[in-house]
DNA sequence: CATGCTAATAGTGTATACAATTTCACTATG
DNA sequence: CATAGTGAAATTGTATACACTATTAGCATG
């Protein structure tokens, strides 16, 4: 018998598609969404669309205004900073917890990802960077074994994901980030949870600054 | 012209009612909800009900299982601890930020709330305690002026609110909590953000332990 | 009695119809 | 020409009908 989870509900499918369209930048901040348009676009009725939209609203990816409509959420610089500050706290905490869980195998897997990031930075291969950077960060999250913490971090990341991608083209901090990652890895090897937490916090803070800086060139995307 | 926000949508109304029914314990963890029952209960069709339920699901207050149904979320002890740990971080951070914003007026308002808490504890007036305790904590949140931080904390609080209330009847830590609050206030007066953050973290951690302890007497509510 | 089949029931998932509201273009009026 | 008003179109909000799935009770069969 086929796995039931494979034929997911239309609602769930639509939810994921719109969510990914937003995080990947196929739907841009401020863009107006109408239920009919989405309904035609995905060839389903408005019922599952509306339910998916409610979910996306709760997660902050879209904004409703009663009887008016829906738009992809825009973030102000203030909100952006706020979200990164919270991520800094939470990701730092996740690393702190994960440190004791990390085996030598984990460290070597992380080191491997780290090397791929160095290559990606050298080649200015943004796709490879994004992919491995996501892997690097999620490794700690997952190892922490805290489901709710994970969900929160992922949710917050989604809200800034597009902005982060946008800014990366202008970003000259690859080397800095690699330095941070190296420092985090080093702290993990030494099983120094305090240090690892501090380094991760610092890392996310730096990311925040870089993004705010580079987005000032693209003000139209910001609120 | 009447304020438009007054005649909110049915969906929003239902959302708030179910949410409050859960946080206030009129709907208990593990309780099964059917759309028809809710539909009859509130005399509206299933459409707004389902949308409200999606919202509640995103916030973790209820759990869906495809083609099966809905139930009010249960928390395991592990999850409970996890949520309190996150709250400890976030509320500590909120206090840290708010410290510089607090005027003398704010301090005196907080002191006033603090006094009411002392009275409530002396009289074993749980209602008064809950109310003023909520005021005390929200004061810092609000003063921090971070919208997203606020929302997160409130969301996390809702998920544990009922358990916290349950446990309070068995709780003998009023005096301890009052001591914590006093310490937090003291740190705020001294404008010592670091200290205030540490105290608040400690306070939430203590709450966590008290709740886990007292709920072990009511295992049936836990997962 | 145990087991497996079947039909009925209840509940969720989706589509559609209708109601209410907003928006916007067009017209009438000063 | 500016502006208020009016009505049609577009869009969201809600109700209802239908489809699909899961559960359960009852019956037949071994």
Provide structural commentary.
- The structure is a homodimer of 223-residue chains.
- The first copy, chain A, is 71% helix and 4% strand.
- The first copy, chain A, is mainly α and 223 residues long.
- In chain A, a hairpin with a 3-residue loop joins β2 and β3.
- In chain A, α1 (10-23) packs across α3 and α5 packs antiparallel against α8 (174-189).
- Chain A is globular, with a radius of gyration of 19 Å.
- Chain A starts with 9 loop residues before the first helix and ends in an 8-residue tail after the last helix.
- The A-B interface holds A 4, 8-9, 47, 50-51, 54-55, 57-60, 66, 79, 82-83, 85-86, 89-90, 93, 146-149, 152 and B 4, 8-9, 47, 50-51, 54-55, 57-60, 66, 79, 82-83, 85-86, 89-90, 93, 146-149, 152.
- Chain A binds a DNA duplex (30 and 30 nucleotides) through residues 9-11, 34-36, 44-48, 50-51, 64, 66-70.
Going by helix content, strand content and strand pairing, the class of chain A is: mainly alpha
Q: Helix proportion of residues of chain A, in percent?
A: over 70%
What percent strand of chain A? under 5%
Q: What is the distance, rounded to the nearest whole angstrom, between the alpha carbons of the first and last residues of chain A? A: 50 Å
Give the domain tally of chain A. Answer: 2
What does the largest sheet of chain A look like? 3 strands, antiparallel
| Broad shape of chain A | globular
Total helices of chain A: the number is 9
Oligomer: homodimer
Low-confidence stretches of chain A: 1-6
Number of distinct beta strands of chain A: 3
Task: Please write the string of helix (H) and strand (E) elements of chain A.
Answer: HEHHEEHHHHHH
CATH architectural designation of the largest domain in chain A: Up-down Bundle
Which two chains form the greatest contact, residue counts included? A-B, 26 and 26 residues
State the name of the first-level CATH class of the largest domain in chain A: Mainly Alpha
Name of the CATH superfamily of the largest domain in chain A: GntR ligand-binding domain-like
Spatial order of the strands forming the largest sheet of chain A:
1-3-2
CATH topology name of the largest domain in chain A = Four Helix Bundle (Hemerythrin (Met), subunit A)
């Amino acid at each position: 018998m086929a796995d039931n989870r494979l034929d997911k509900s239309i609602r769930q499918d639509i939810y994921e598609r719109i969510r990914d369209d937003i995080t990947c930048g196929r739907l841009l901040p401020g863009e107006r969404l109408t239920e009919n348009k989405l309904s035609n676009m995905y060839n389903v009725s408005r019922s599952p669309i509306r339910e998916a939209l409610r979910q996306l609203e709760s997660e902050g990816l879209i904004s409703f205004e009663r009887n008016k409509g829906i738009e992809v959420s825009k973030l102000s610089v203030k909100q952006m900073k706020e979200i990164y500050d919270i991520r800094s706290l939470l990701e730092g905490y996740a690393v702190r917890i994960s440190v004791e869980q990390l085996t030598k195998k984990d460290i070597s897997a992380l080191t491997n990802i780290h090397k791929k990031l160095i290559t990606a930075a050298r080649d200015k291969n943004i796709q490879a960077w994004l992919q491995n950077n996501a892997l690097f960060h999620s490794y700690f999250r997952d190892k922490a074994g805290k489901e709710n913490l994970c969900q929160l971090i992922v949710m917050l990341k989604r809200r800034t994901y597009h902005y982060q991608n946008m800014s990366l083209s202008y970003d000259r901090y690859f080397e800095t980030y690699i330095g941070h990652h190296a420092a985090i890895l080093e702290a993990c090897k030494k099983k120094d949870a305090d240090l690892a937490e501090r380094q991760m916090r610092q890392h996310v803070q730096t990311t925040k600054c870089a993004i705010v800086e580079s987005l000032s060139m693209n003000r139209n995307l910001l609120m």
